[in-house]
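Hey, I was hoping to borrow your eyes for a little while. I'm sending you its amino acid sequence along with the backbone structure tokens. Take your time with it, there's no hurry, and the full record follows here.
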Amino acid sequence: MLNFRMLERRTILRSMLPALLIIGIGLIIYSNTFYSPFYFDDEYYIVKNPVIKDLSYFWGPSKAKDFENIFGYHTLVMRYIGDLTFALNYELHGLDVSGYHAANIAIHLINALLAYLLTSLVLKTPRTGNSSEYERLLLPLAAALIFVSHPVQTESVTYITQRFTSLAAMFYLLSFIGYAKFRLTEKKIWYAAAITSAILGMKTKEIVFTLPPMLTLFEFMFFEGDAKKRIKHLLPILLTLIIIPASLFVISKHADIAAILNDATRAKSDMPRSDYLFTQFRVVITYLRLLMLPVNQNLDYNYPVYTSFLNPDVFLSFIAIAALIGTASILPLKTNDRHLRIASFGLLWFFAALSVESSMIPTQDMIFEHRTYLPSFGFIVSAVSLLFFMKDKFCLRNSYVAAFLAIVTIVLCILTYQRNDIWADELTLWEDTAKKTTDKARVYNNLGFACNKKGQPDRAIVLYRTALSLKPDYAEAYNNLGYSYYTKKMFSEAIEQYEKAISLMPSFAEAYNNLGAVYGDKNKTDIALEYFKTAARLNPGFISARYNAALAYFRMGMRQEAMKETSELLKIMPGNKQAQELYAKIVSSSP
């Protein structure tokens, strides 16, 4: 009896070892990121986003229509689940970054465990049977360890806003696992889990749009049975494809479906869709290079735009991509080898998962490393499967394969920890970016912003000037330059820069608000009020501008106007403490 219990405990411990190893490695390599600050779009999606600061918007999203910018109502409708997690973080931790990082790291660890589980399930499907016990353990473990430790994942984990990406990947993987378990066990609870995860993923980030087609491919590559019955299984999941277009319809100002789709897929610049597509052929090759050789990582690339398909770089990249997709598509039809089948599916996963952001649908930026997060799972599984194929073909020892995978994992862990050290401080991150991207205005603007936060306005001014030399019509850089002068009490210079920003972007609400702050400090409250009112009119959801306007009314003795503005502000943000305190002052000062 005693021996049986000891054996049982050993079995349980052995079954837990892969999970413990994955979690342990993940925690170690991300242990230096818990206090990494908010970066880049974090300012808009989290720090300055009023929607996530009041949970009432999640019970009635239509109440957030005052925040009709892409980071407010738009994101709430399109990425409801992701926004909800940020709102819960804010409810629990305010703007303490450690809570946000803990959530991001937890999601990444869960994804690595899901990668292990999904790969294990793939090895149990009818088309991949007869694998050895050694392979059933090591292949999924290797894929999960490389996934959790790869440095290209740092942008999706340490950059807080990119939780949209990692959380969407979590639902994507969960949906696959639910579907695989359903097909292997015929238990409907797993089918319900697959559909639920698909729905949640669609409301987290648009990259999940590729899930139903990929599940269809998964069904026909790894399972067998009556075609009609299989299509019947897939139909409800395929119907989730309408969720993202329906969400676009909610936020669109058009009634025409064609106009909605055109609006949703147009570039956020004057770039033609064809130029974006040609450039993405090169970008995809860069992503492959980063996955194979993760060096010279960069937060903000200045990627060249290609305007001709016949450009040698574009054409050769297209040939390489077409060859990989073609091989991955044909190979399962030519061989029954399970490793090649899994490798083919992994490659197709990689390209499909990239297709939303690396095709003819232009996004604001050509390249970002976080876009490889979900695709990387397919690439990694493919690479590990090919390694096992080579092991069998050349009769390599199991110990050699295990040692090679261990070395790869250790190297990746070191690179990830070092990359996270750079992410640990805003100044070091943007200095690293500026060393690698020497000719992009946004990089110098953001480095200047980091210097301002560190109390280095003089250095910030030089950097903003550099940004403007690269892009003379850069309204945001003028606005930030004005703020640097403002912190130095150089009010005339600050006003000049803010006015330049407004001349370039007449709808620049933040610049109007900043101008109002300058005139407020000069005790010209009446002029300041007009600028605050303009900022609030341009952006009704601009909390700071509306608060400043209310405060200006109060200081001018216009209590009724101050009361009205503060009341309106509290309707939008009931939990705003500054507005509550101002309202109390107004009430107590009434005759």
Remarks:
- Residues 427-589 form a domain with the Serine Threonine Protein Phosphatase 5, Tetratricopeptide repeat fold (CATH 1.25.40.10).
